[in-house]
User: Which sequence fits this backbone?
């Protein structure tokens, strides 16, 4: 174990009780049932920290000030231990990733133009949000820091044929007149100056667009494909002035679903890094930490590696039977606690979304099958369920091949869980696409027989078993479809066992 292991932290606080002694005592009791393990912990003196964490009242019935100070210091050491462990790896996962450049944005709009021709649409229309960020690098809060506005600011991408007959993208913005300068100041990723159709406050913006030179060549109603994030009043406004409005689908939706090599590198970096942060943090855990304290330390560990967390679900035992939690995070870590952590962070605008379920490091791993069988029944059940979910994930991963249906991935995992006798306990779909959003289409549920997987699509595989009043297990990794070859893992390495997540 590294010098930043939990033992080192224990040792800082309790000099009189050597880590070796604690280890020996615990080791000799590892076959004992739950109560005996607890007694063992008490015998090693660990329970003193445990009660310190719980802030049990002192002899006078009040929390002792020095105890509070010790708790705070120990918590701080825990976070520092996680950060140091992660930084000590040298962060190799970050090496190949770099931000999306202007050429990448040009290439996206080029693919969009080709897809629009295939879908017989005259233009694609999108307002600031995730898809606008994807094609033009402006999110909704980057355009309107205050709140989403009622004034439409739209990006239109149209396909046209250049002199050599190749399909190219032509981009125009419909923009409030007084905001045109601000739109230019955004420095959107275009090699040429951007074109703006301005509308005055007392004009109808949609009629302004319809009458502009953008669609002057067309003798029929221009056919607009609108993004899924397009607000309803804008769609109706466009339809009212004579546009034919169709929803996102087909090849156009596939543009964002199919990841480029730069996107894959970022997804690999952020997802591998997030898994690594969980593993390094785990080594520093000690009894008495709460779910909230672990989440906060993990967030700061991710930040230390340049990854910005945007959700962090830490759940112990029965609190994990609700896949997305909902309890208040005050449950306390014990030796036999099954810890479920589902966490996501951003790097260069791309998301991670991973989950691991494990025992804390101070719960001794049985060293033989015999020792394992001697564990308490509730621990054995945890081990069995961990293995079933792992097998479910393995079977789902086999389905990540070109032309398999989205449904087949879910069904493969579900079959394993059902056959193992846990039918009805896998309460959500097996996964979803991932990119600039943690959840993107296509969605992997057992009803989605229509969507076929394609090379370059990246997905989560995250089966789970949730046992109400007991515990929950979920394993989540990211897979990239590569034709008929094995999918590529974008999370570095899968979990090995509950002691090696
Ligand atoms: C895209 O926007 C981000 C800010 O959100 C910025 O850091 C990045 O440089 C921009 N990329 C390009 C190619 O302009
Ligand atoms: C794009 O479309 C606008 C409006 O129709 C036109 O003025 C402009 O020349 C076009 N740009 C290119 C590069 O074709
Ligand atoms: C958290 O919820 C539990 C009940 O599940 C309650 O006993 C406890 O007081 C709550 N703690 C906080 C800090 O709200
Ligand atoms: C979750 O943890 C809290 C402590 O934070 C505990 O009181 C509660 O019983 C646990 N279980 C559920 C289902 O809320
Ligand atoms: C899917 O099937 C089509 C038609 O059979 C084939 O051309 C294509 O290469 C397949 N795609 C993948 C990713 O295997």
Assistant:
């Amino acid at each position: 174990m590294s010098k930043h292991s939990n033992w080192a932290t224990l040792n800082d606080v309790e000099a009189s009780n050597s880590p070796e002694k604690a280890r020996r005592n615990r080791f000799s009791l590892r076959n004992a049932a739950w109560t005996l393990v607890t007694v063992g912990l008490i015998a090693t003196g660990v329970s003193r920290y445990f009660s310190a964490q719980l802030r049990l009242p002192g002899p006078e019935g009040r929390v002792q000030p020095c105890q509070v100070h010790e708790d705070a210091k120990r918590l701080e050491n825990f976070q520092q231990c996680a950060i140091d462990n992660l930084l000590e790896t040298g962060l190799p996962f970050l090496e190949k990733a770099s931000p999306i450049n202007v050429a990448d944005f040009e290439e996206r709009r080029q693919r969009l133009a080709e897809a629009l021709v295939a879908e017989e649409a005259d233009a694609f229309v999108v307002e600031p949000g995730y898809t606008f960020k994807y094609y033009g690098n402006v999110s909704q809060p980057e355009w309107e820091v205050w709140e989403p506005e009622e004034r439409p600011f739209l990006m239109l991408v149209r396909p046209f044929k250049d002199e050599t007959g190749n399909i190219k993208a032509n981009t125009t913005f419909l923009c409030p007149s007084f905001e045109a300068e601000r739109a230019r100041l955004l420095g959107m990723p275009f090699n040429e100056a951007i074109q703006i159709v301005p509308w005055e406050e007392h004009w109808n913006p949609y009629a302004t667009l319809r009458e502009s030179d953008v669609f002057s060549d067309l003798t029929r109603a221009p056919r607009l494909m609108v993004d899924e994030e397009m607000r309803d009043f804008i769609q109706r406004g466009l339809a009212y002035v004579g546009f034919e409005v169709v929803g996102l689908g087909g090849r156009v939706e596939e543009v964002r679903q199919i990841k480029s090599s730069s996107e894959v590198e970022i997804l690999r970096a952020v997802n591998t890094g997030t898994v690594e942060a969980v593993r390094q943090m785990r080594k520093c855990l000690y009894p008495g930490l709460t779910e909230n304290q672990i989440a906060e330390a993990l967030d700061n560990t991710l930040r230390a590696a340049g990854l910005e967390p945007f959700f962090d679900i830490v759940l112990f035992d029965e609190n994990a039977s609700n896949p997305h939690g909902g309890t208040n995070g005050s449950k306390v870590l014990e030796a036999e606690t099954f810890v479920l952590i589902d966490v996501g962070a951003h790097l260069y605008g791309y998301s991670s979304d991973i989950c691991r379920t494990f025992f804390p490091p101070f719960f001794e791993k049985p060293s033989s099958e015999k020792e394992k069988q001697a564990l308490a029944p509730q621990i054995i059940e945890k081990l069995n369920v961990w293995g079933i979910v792992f097998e479910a994930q393995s079977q789902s991963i086999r389905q990540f091949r070109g032309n398999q249906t989205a449904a087949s991935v879910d069904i493969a995992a579900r079959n394993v869980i059902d056959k193992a006798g846990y039918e009805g306990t896998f309460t959500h779909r097996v996964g979803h696409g991932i990119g600039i959003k943690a959840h993107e289409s296509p969605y992997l549920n057992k009803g989605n027989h229509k969507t076929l997987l394609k090379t370059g699509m990246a997905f989560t595989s995250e089966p789970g078993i949730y046992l109400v009043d007991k515990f929950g297990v979920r394993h989540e990794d990211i897979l990239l479809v590569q034709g008929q070859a094995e999918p590529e893992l974008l999370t570095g390495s899968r979990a090995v066992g509950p002691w090696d997540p």
In short: The pocket of 2-acetamido-2-deoxy-beta-D-glucopyranose (ligand 3) is lined by residues 327-328, 330 (CB under 6 Å). Residues 1-59 have pLDDT under 50 and may be disordered.
